[in-house]
Design a protein that fits this description.
By secondary structure, this protein is α+β, with helices and mostly antiparallel strands. It is 33% helix and 35% strand. It has 2 domains: 96 residues; 138 residues, Gcn5-related N-acetyltransferase (GNAT) (Aminopeptidase, 3-Layer(aba) Sandwich), CATH 3.40.630.
Length: 250
């Protein structure tokens, strides 16, 4: 049975160690159930959770155990509709959707430092500067500033997201974000460097610093990237542990 979430503890206990679940849990912690555009469901089998689903402005995230009822999940998603769906690649295969995009899931192990990078990294609430960097990088799915700002600032205020800026030569040159933070997981993304400062290790320094901070707090640190970027993240200290997949709206 797929039902609306009415037991936050059950959701948080289920969403304790998976990067997809971390996104669902963090959104729930930030928004609760009072926003019509943001909704949450769980699949229960014999009273036990087997899958969790969120829909945020039409974008669906799904995490599911191997023992989930995938036929029911497919029927529910077909009925629900979505502008996009993101989940683990094998989960998408079990449901029976065809991936429109896919990439790698990497997990932080330990940092590989570069002593010759002269830069300073720190947390920030300078959202406008961060948006400007991502915009100049051609960051996919960024959207307009007002919509992006409303969401990321809300999550930061509720402690489920943090943004880091890297400065060098008296200029903010790179950024990285912990987009979704739970008690056990930090999910990183929105990594970018101004085009004129690329190739000098600033993105590597920023994401490495951010990942190490959360690793030292005892959290599992994940990041989704395109397959071609795996070698870059391996230099930072990540290892590939799986694959994500996305489907365009139906």
């Amino acid at each position: 049975m797929v039902k609306l979430v009415d037991d936050d503890k059950m959701l948080y206990d289920f969403c304790d160690n998976d990067p997809f679940c971390a996104q669902i849990s963090a959104y729930r912690r930030a928004y609760g159930d009072g926003v019509p555009e943001i909704m949450f469901w769980m699949q229960l089998i014999d009273g036990a959770p087997r899958a969790a689903i969120s829909r945020v402005d039409g974008a669906v995230t799904l995490c599911a155990e191997a023992s989930a009822d995938y036929e029911e999940l497919r029927e529910f998603l077909d009925f629900l509709g979505f502008s996009s769906l993101k989940t683990e690649f094998s989960v998408l295969e079990r449901i029976g959707y065809r991936a429109d995009a896919a990439g790698s899931i990497v997990r932080f192990v330990s940092r590989n430092k570069c002593d010759d990078i002269h830069a300073a990294c720190g947390f920030t609430d300078d959202y406008k500067t961060v948006f400007g960097i991502l915009q100049k990088c051609g960051f996919e799915g960024l959207g307009d500033y007002s919509h992006w700002l409303a969401d990321i600032s809300h999550r930061c205020r509720h402690g489920v997201a943090k943004i880091m800026l890297c400065s060098a030569e008296s200029k903010n040159v790179a950024c990285a974000s912990a987009l979704f933070i739970t008690e056990t997981v930090a999910f990183l993304g929105a990594v970018g460097t101004l085009p004129e400062y690329r190739g000098r290790g600033f993105a590597r320094e920023t994401v490495g610093t951010l990942a190490e901070l959360f690793k030292n707090e005892g959290k599992d640190v994940y990041l989704f990237c395109k397959d071609k970027l795996v070698p870059f993240y391996e230099k930072v200290g990540f290892q590939k542990v799986g694959s994500w997949a996305a489907v365009n709206g139906n």
